[in-house]
Amino acid sequence: MSPTPGHTSEDAAVRLILDLVARGEADSRSELAARLGIAPSTVGLRVQRLLDAGLLVEAGDGASRGGRRPRVLRLAPDSGVVLSVDLGGGHARIGRHDLSGALQQVHTFDIDLSDGPVATLDTLVPALRELTGEHRLHAVGVGLPGPVDITTGSVDQPSRMPGWPAFRVGEHLRASLDVPVVVDNDANLAALGEHRAQLGTTGHSITVKAGTAVGSGIIVAGDVHRGATSAAGDITHTRIDGSGDIPCSCGNTGCLETVASGASLVRQMRERGRSDVATTNDVLLLARDADPVATTLVRTAGTHLGQALSGVVNFFNPHAVFLTGSMSASEPFIAAVRSRVYEACHPLATQTLRIEAAVTGADAILHGAARLALDSLEFSATAA
């Protein structure tokens, strides 16, 4: 777990101890010292910070292993929660998580991002307060459907978010909620949530969010890799051979999103006279019922995505590629992605590669936002 920008490595070390105890992977100072490979005295100082902050409690004595009986560590009953937010074009999903990251409750409601940031976020705040209830709120993680400058918590050159560019989402919410608020692109958060659920804090993966639009995130050694301008991992605007000259929202033509997204499938079905098709799910339902045109389009979309991914897999050599979003529910789509990647990549790059649907499903962004919020917690200033 690397430090969140602006926080210290000591914060990260204390957060790791909190995470291990919260997840039940260690329950005493001696177990933590053995697990982390650091001196018991160092573990003791870091545990004390968590005890002083009211996040951990000592819950009696554990079993002896030949010496003193260790004091058992547990999350405090009132240790508090973090909140997660997934903002889409027409909806918001918010979640409440305990300090292990476990999702306790989800609330979904309609919004319209075209109303602008102030109106949208001011609608969000009462819902976040209601979800918090009587719990102690530590931090909020927010996923936005566009490129994000994480140093400012603002959207940078979004395609479909009028009025949002340069608006500091994190600062606006923090002023209302009085807790740290961290913001990132929704595909990065989906990648973080899925990776931590499947591979923990080690390993490398790519997660592709394939729904109405296409987005992707890269995880290196358990953390989001954002690149120099927070654009790393975005395969959305990769030029696809044979895609034609269909205009893309980025200003170019023939991008992956124009031939492999749910919106592109709807457009192609309607161009073939299927005026009854209005959503990605309409296309997927037709494919599930063996409609030949829909099935072909879904498979072709998977092949296009596999083409875009093959170069990334060859270059990056990840442990896994996870697929989330509505398209990931289609086995023909996933099979086409696999087939193209395995065909186009070097055998060493695919020797142990997993390509599969994400286990976190529709909650991937919420899980990632919660992990980002937990990774933002500060302890270095807490009295020992």
Automatic annotation (TrEMBL):
Pfam families per record: HTH_20, ROK
Signal sequence region: none
CDD domains xrefs: HTH_ARSR (cd00090)
Superkingdom per UniProt: Bacteria
InterPro entries attached to this UniProt entry: ArsR-like_HTH (IPR011991), ATPase_NBD (IPR043129), ROK (IPR000600), WH-like_DNA-bd_sf (IPR036388), WH_DNA-bd_sf (IPR036390)
Family membership noted in the UniProt record: Belongs to the ROK (NagC/XylR) family.
PANTHER family listed in its UniProt record: GLUCOKINASE (PTHR18964:SF173), ROK (REPRESSOR, ORF, KINASE) FAMILY (PTHR18964)
Name of protein: ROK family transcriptional regulator
Organism: Microbacterium esteraromaticum
